[in-house]
Amino acid sequence: MKTKKLDRFQGILLLIIIIYSVFVAIKNPAFIHIETIFDITRVASTTLMVAIGLLVVMISGGIDVSFMAVALFGSYTTINIMIETGIDNLAFAFVSAALIGGLLGVINALLISWLKLPPFIITLGTQNLFHGIMTTFISDKSFGAGVLPESLHAFGQASVFKIKDVGLTASVLPVLLAGLATWFILYRTMIGRGIFAIGNDEESARRAGFNPFRIRLFVYVYSGILAGIMGMMYVAQTNALYPNKLVGDELIVVAAVVIGGTKITGGQGKIFGAVLGVIIIYLLNTTLIMIGLSSSWNNLFVGTILVISVAVTSYQEKVKNRNNLIFTE
Amino acid sequence: MGTVLEARHIYKSFVGVQALKDINIKIESGKIHCLAGENGCGKSTFVKNISGVYTPDSGEVVLNGSLYHSLTPSQAMREGIQVIYQDLSLFQHLTVAENIAIGRLKSDKKRIVNWKKVHAIAKEQLDKIGVHMDINQPVGEISMANRQITAICRALAQDARILFMDEPTTALTRTEVDRLMNIMLDLKKKGLAIVFISHKLDEVFSVADTITIFRNGEKIGDFESKELDKKSLSYHMTGREVEYPRYRRSVKDNTPVLEIENLSRKKQYDSLSLRVCPGDIVGVTGLLGSGRTELALSLFGLNPADSGRIKIDGKEAAISSPMAAKKLGIALLPEDRFHQGLFMDREVKENISSAIVDDISARGLLDKEREKKIAEDYTRQMKVRTPSVETAVGTLSGGNQQKVVIGKWTAARPRVFIMDTPTVGIDIGSKAEIYEQIHELAADGMSIIFISDEIQEIIANCNRVMVLADGRCVRMLEEDDLEENAEQTITELIGRHAEETAKGEAL
Amino acid sequence: MNKVNKIIRRDLNLSILTGVTMLVLLWSAVFFGDAMYSLKNIQSMTFQIPEFGFLALAMMLSNMIGGIDLSIIANANTVAITSAYILNGQWAFGMTGSARIVAAVAAAVIVSLLFGLLNGVLISRTSAPPLIATLGTMTLFQGIGMAVTGGASVGDIDKGFAQMGKATLMQIPLIFWLFLLTAVILGTVLSKSKFGRKLYLYGDNPTASRFSAIDNDKMCICTFLLTGVLAGMAGLIVLSRVNSAKVGYGDSYLLQTLIVCVVGGIDPNGGKGRVWGVLIAVVLMQILSSAFTIMSLSPYTKKLIWGIMLVLVLGLNYALRKYTNRMELRKSLKEGC
Questions:
Q1: Going by fewer Cβ within 10 Å, which terminus of chain C is more open, N or C?
Q2: pTM of the model
Q3: Model confidence at B156, in pLDDT bands (50, 70, 90)?
């Protein structure tokens, strides 16, 4: 852990990003504008937030497709409370959304631990459950600009610093904070090592003295908290909230994390990888127009990269296993 | 040297089955204590009762002077009990250093990881046993022997006073076993109590001070190592004199069915040659990693050889897949019955027909009556004890399960049947029945390749034996060679060769 | 009585499912009466079942080999788009009338087979986990559809083809007969043929099936070819019903097909389940769906109910599994001692 060497897979990703960026820059010099880069950062920041949460879940050997519903649930409920009570406070907004997110994470963790079924199916169920509960029992109104608390709007507009009148969105701050916190948890705390341990082998982790249930609880709660915060960031950025947003966009985040080299089998994964994955997706998203393709081509490229990345990493693993006479399919 | 652990009157039962009956054992520091017994005799259950995995129904344990009626895993660890399970319980993607230190950090109730400390712990433990290795490598990328050492270091890092090791040598080569034995002797000198569970008799004799024998959940007795010899030990373990019936080839036909010429695969085995005739039971013996399983998989199309030739009936054959192997009349009983040999959730009859689905189908449809009849025929022939052929195979005993695997491939009427350690984890009664079946199949003209590391078993059941060491054939023993002192010869062959390679490596 | 008991025991899940379906049928008859069982409503239900049913069968096959195929809906939509372009003349290459219809169906079969082949080859050759592999191909298939259409709906298709989707035989839509026929054939193949047997074995334990000289790669590819074609059929049916095709149609079907499989007794870990279970579950799902429509529930409420249903069924299955395991253990102990 001392030697911070870039692994080969991440090196290749970085290379692809650089080559592609150079290509775009040659085709369309507008790309090198600070505005473009800041814009990519702004739209990618929310996704990055949930991608980090998902990464932690995947390292523990699980998967989560409910986080967008959790994000919406958290922000939507909080906004409702704020409008009803007239509280207009940024800290309250984030803390409340994070708390609600964490609470929903508890439900995910409990169901996954009890039912012992593929977490994909369970979180797909809870995704609909959460979204359904929110829209049925809380509200399904839409909030446009002007109705939303002013403090949020201000946060959405705020920038960390400005270069030539173009500001870097303040949304990078929570993401940066989450990234650092996650790095610290994963590599500097025992619970983080426990997350890696249960992702490697749950039974061995139990024998080493870890409590898989508690670790899983932590993982899904943590992912829920990040999702709640992300929901608030999203509201602040778009300055509007509809009950049908976010939900349905979770698979592209899964794709980003997988492109970043995280394996669904657990026990492995790097924050930097997830960051690279998200960057690749948003880079394509914003630059296809610059090289003369419409954004409709987006999925074709993302899909191709994902398929190739999955094929290459899985095939390497298979060859390694076969040479050790392990015949897993 | 005092008693560190005393177990008194331990009883344990699982849903009606008495697994342990009145077990009394004393374990002393500075000694190597061996628990011996057949599979399922209760030795592993005993260890789990002491380490806190199970709670005994009654009885008590005295550890370093304090009395316990039941133990939790963390209490056991605090008293210095460390268990290295057969699967080692390591984390593949984590580094050696972290694997060594993680248990210690956990038991110290650390919340924050100090990597300097992690490396220091790992280095300290490795130094303690005098081994050098790269502690920054992921465990998934190091050899089995180094993994074993990592697991020992992890136990030592947690101040082990009593170290239980469950079958630590099965995956090691001879030199590695010797190194491990030396480490064990060294630790013993340092005052550790080591409890060693093994079924390999020569290892038991080479290191153990005391041997406790288990049979059917009962303790047969404690013996000093010098009181016993192999014969009396196996008598105590099984409760009967085991005389394997010798196999004598009766088939007259001497045209080879299978010929292997200079078959090689990089890093696995090197220029192996073999001729197998009808009625031959050719033994292949050697340690794990000697190339025995690797060769078997190559002949079954799962581990293609790099060079050399395989001939069936004198014609060169390319065996690129199990399907091709089956078409050529080659069958394989795999090493891992649980994952590779059987479909545990499915019925006996579906298992028996699993390799001949195509053969019992007409125009794409399965002939279920024929399937049932075949299943009934072969369960009868193999003496499988099952309520019916519709029973799920996973509910049968290990011996009966293995008979189902033999039946499954016999139903495919192979000409060459490769059996990779067919009697592992099987009770003595089923073993005898399986040997009998194998002899009958061979007498009917089938060629059999019998892989095993139990030398006695090999000598009794084979008319020719290929001895492998480090991927090379060190000797081919013919029928006459097997008459006298064969056991000693084979043991020496494997051992001597291993020593030579060890010397070679040292230079 | 003993025999009935035995049959119920042997497939507890299927028996419970049948019982629940009966109850729901009865309940909806009491509550909605004619609104539910009028000829018109039955007809409209049988119009709606096939597209969803085909997707459910596709999902079932992928579940049976231990994977979740996320790409089926993307496959269906892109196939529908391809056919729509042929049927509205854009890719007709001078063909007209029934020639176009034949070409459109042929193209649908070919494209869906290609998609299935890609999935099968990718998963069998590289041993990629199906969930992640099909996430990739899902994005890719969607991407192809998006790249071709730019996200717009492709309509104005041949009238003759649109008629086929609405044609009936004995008051029941042709497409429903087609679905029923497909389900019966698939059910027979799975339970009676050697392919079916190998599929169960492969799904139960792929390592053991490799060691039993079963061609795993072939099984995997064949299964995904079938999955692909079934999804493609769903695409054609959507096209004939809606008269247009676009990327993103029927996204909620992913959850519903999974529910139907779980309710129908398919084990998502592979090797277990039967077509009949899924068939009953599809009918049950449709009746509930119709009931919700009659009750004019909002799509959000429906989502809530589907979510609850999935979690509930998973919980029930879990309890059931625990119960039967304990019974079996007790039984085997009795026999053993």
A1: N
A2: 0.89
A3: confident
